[in-house]
Design goal:
Elements (H helix, E strand, L loop, with lengths): L6 H7 L3 H14 L10 H15 L14 H30 L15 H5 L36 E2 L17 H19 L2 H4 L5 H4 L9 H10 L19 E3 L5 E10 L5 E15 L6 E14 L13 E10 L28 E2 L16 E2 L3
Parallel strand pairs: 7-8
Antiparallel strand pairs: 1-3, 2-4, 3-4, 4-5, 5-6
Helix pairs in contact: 2-3
Length: about 375
């Protein structure tokens, strides 16, 4: 046997100790979880030395990475802590977006209009619509969001929804006369449908003061309806009124949409047609937080006649025709008030005899009949 050491032994003896130490650490890390192997005598020796150095606090720095500064280690710790805190909210946000992609700005998935567009106000109605408004998200109304799930969410608030057309002379009727007729009609719509006193069931004095007392029968009929409402004389045919003992407004906003047109009248004056829909969010007066909506569409034909040729009161309107369609109000109750139905208290009764209609559909003409029907949405 030769006394010359083997090539393997010579190569091993020429490897520095720090290299061997790093090799052992890397090997232990890379082979963790694999089948255990019996370490060599050299490996056991180096391992034992490393263990003793660690016990004395003398472990050498990493071979490839170099020393780890306390600052770097702190940043890593903070990042781990931050992700641990943000993990749950981020997961919730991802779930919400998956259920409703429209929550993301800009509509990245091409699902339709962006959230900003969906909530932006509609321009004023300048012509008769050709179809009903599109479907809305089926969200129930609440006290905080009384118009949720309604096309009226994008309608104007109250008086802002009654936009007058530009006044122009019609035949012998001057532009100023036309403008006066338009403004008086607007005042009548506001007083009869938006005035807080009228809506909460009080006598609509402001609206009555705009009507010509010389018009035969009208004021007498309206006063009779307000004093002793009945099936033949009910003030809700002209005024939007709720019983304050039964109903409270859900907020201060009534949504309004419609248009106004004019032409030469039959009494040397100007005739105005107003076609407007009003949406009233309400809750019960018993303290309930449940919200529902009543939708009232009114078509009103009035004329500002020429007092120089006819026996009329200057500055007062003559009503030629008025018609209404009411969505979500109990039928066959003629006590002078609108009676909204709430989903939780909708009573089972006889099937409605009238047609099923969309109360937001302003493309339809109003029929003379007022059969009790069903609305497709509120």
């Amino acid at each position: 046997m030769s006394d010359k050491p083997s090539d393997d032994h010579s190569s091993a003896s020429e490897i520095p100790d720090d290299v061997w130490e790093q090799f052992i650490r890397d090997a232990e890390r890379d082979t963790r979880g694999s089948a255990p192997k019996e370490p060599s005598a050299r490996a056991r020796m180096v391992t034992e030395r490393l263990r003793r150095q660690e016990e004395r606090g003398e472990s050498p720095p990493g071979w490839r990475t170099g020393p780890v500064s306390p600052e770097t280690n702190g940043r890593a710790g903070r990042r781990r802590t931050l992700w641990a805190v943000l993990g749950v909210p981020v997961a919730v946000a991802v779930a919400l977006v998956a259920l409703k992609p429209s929550l993301l700005p800009g509509d990245p998935f091409g699902t339709g209009e962006s959230a900003a567009a969906e909530a932006s106000p509609l321009p004023a109605e300048s012509a008769a619509p050709t179809a009903a408004p599109g479907a809305s998200d089926p969200e129930p109304p609440t006290l905080d969001e009384p118009f949720a799930g309604s096309p009226a969410l994008r309608w104007a608030d109250g008086e802002a929804g009654i936009v007058l057309p530009e006044a122009k002379a019609v035949g012998p009727v001057s532009k100023d006369r036309v403008e006066q007729a338009l403004k008086l009609t607007r005042k009548l719509l506001v007083a009869a449908n938006l005035d807080p006193e009228t809506v909460r069931g009080e006598r609509p004095e402001a609206a009555l003061s705009l009507l010509d007392p010389k018009q035969p029968g009208l004021l007498d009929d309206l006063n009779t309806a307000l004093r002793a409402p009945s099936g033949t004389h009910d003030p809700v045919t002209m005024f939007s009124r709720f019983d304050p003992d039964e109903i409270r407004p859900a907020g201060d906003v009534i949504k309004t949409r419609g248009r106004m047109t004019f032409e030469k009248g039959s009494h040397a004056g100007v005739a105005v047609r107003a076609d407007y829909t009003f949406v009233y969010p309400v809750t019960r007066a018993d303290g309930s937080t449940e919200v529902t909506r009543t939708i009232v569409r009114r078509v009103l034909d009035v004329e500002l006649a020429d007092p120089a040729h006819y026996r009329v009161t200057p500055g007062r309107l003559t009503v030629r025709k008025y018609d209404e369609e009411i969505g979500n109000s109990t039928c066959d109750v003629n006590d002078g008030y609108l009676h909204p139905e709430f989903p939780s208290r909708r009573e089972k009764g006889p099937d409605p005899t009238g047609p099923t209609t969309d109360p937001y559909d302003r493309s339809r003409s109003l029929d003379d009949g007022h059969a009790c029907g069903t609305v497709t949405r509120t």
